[in-house]
Amino acid sequence: MTLLGVELWRGEIDLVSPFRTSFGTEASRELLYVRAVGDSHAGWGECVAMVEPNYSSEYLENCIQVVSRFLVPLLRADSSAEEFVSLAAPIRGNYMSKACVEAALLDLRLRQQNISLAKFLGATKTRVASGVSVGIQDSLDDLVRVVGEYLALGYLRVKLKIEPGTDIELVRTVRKEFGDELLLQVDANAAYTSADAEHLKKLDEFNLLLIEQPLPEDDLAGHVKLAKIINTPVCLDESITSFDTARGALDLEACSIINIKPGRVGGYLEAKKIHDLCLSRGVPVWCGGMLETGIGRAANLALAALPGFTLPGDISASARYFARDITKPFTLENGHIEVPNTVGIGAKPLPEMLADFKKIATFEIAAN
Ligand code: SMG
Ligand code: MG
What we know:
By secondary structure, the protein is of the alpha/beta class. Helix content is 33%, strand content 21%.
């Protein structure tokens, strides 16, 4: 069960179309992977940080520093993912950095033990209902066309990105065009303030599944007030960085639904704890997305197969993001994506794709 070394890999894959949110536009995905090298297997973890610190304070270059200087030095030849998580606990924040190291270690250890991540986490589903997150478009006509194309492919739920000035009319248009049956939700990526409560109340008439992260991540009190004013259920994304923040937000009634992203909460083990908490309280959860390639997507599918994930998540097919994914592509079948059930995360980078990536660092791991 030896861990011999850790490698960092970097590369970039173009998105099939630019993805615009209230905080910016992504045209390609710059990527960082951690590869945990054992004596007979290797494990892969994908870092979900973006190039700029706009979604959260983390960003890719900084993750390379944190992983190299603070996280890899904690590892020993026999480290388990669980041990790594407790050794990394004194390092504040830096959830995305911790999560990609943990994921690589989990993938390696589960391959060595010949078990799948889905089985290890306690998955109860073999396929996961797939939703799609639709970026802000140049016009309402474009939006209707794009949503129509996704629905024709079979996506079971649509999430619209909104921002002040591009919200009520946009939701009205999509609701009118595609009808009351469409599972529809919105995501503001923290673009509003408490002063917008009455404005956001106008969304009530559209029977949305939820509104995701309307206010800044630190404004839990604002979300508590907003949740009392609007009828649309409030779901938190950026605000939830740990089990403790999840419990606090639920205790305060700042939200009634949680978007779980392993990268945002420091890893799959913490994500599972949040899932278990929500399941025990009857709080619905769903798996968010960070424009992951197949490495992150494979692991997210295992997580989303847990019983508390009762809402369709932002895990779409590879083709929604990339012309060529780093792994064998994940495809949509009747609105669902199959959960990998082979060892570890059940996916590996394709050698021909990795050829365009660069190994930017190699670390040897000390014997115990
Ligand atoms: O992976 O399909 C995906 C993206 C889903 O909207 C998505 N993610 O706030 O939930 C969110 C955003 C964060 C990433 S935006 C670049
Ligand atoms: Mg979000």
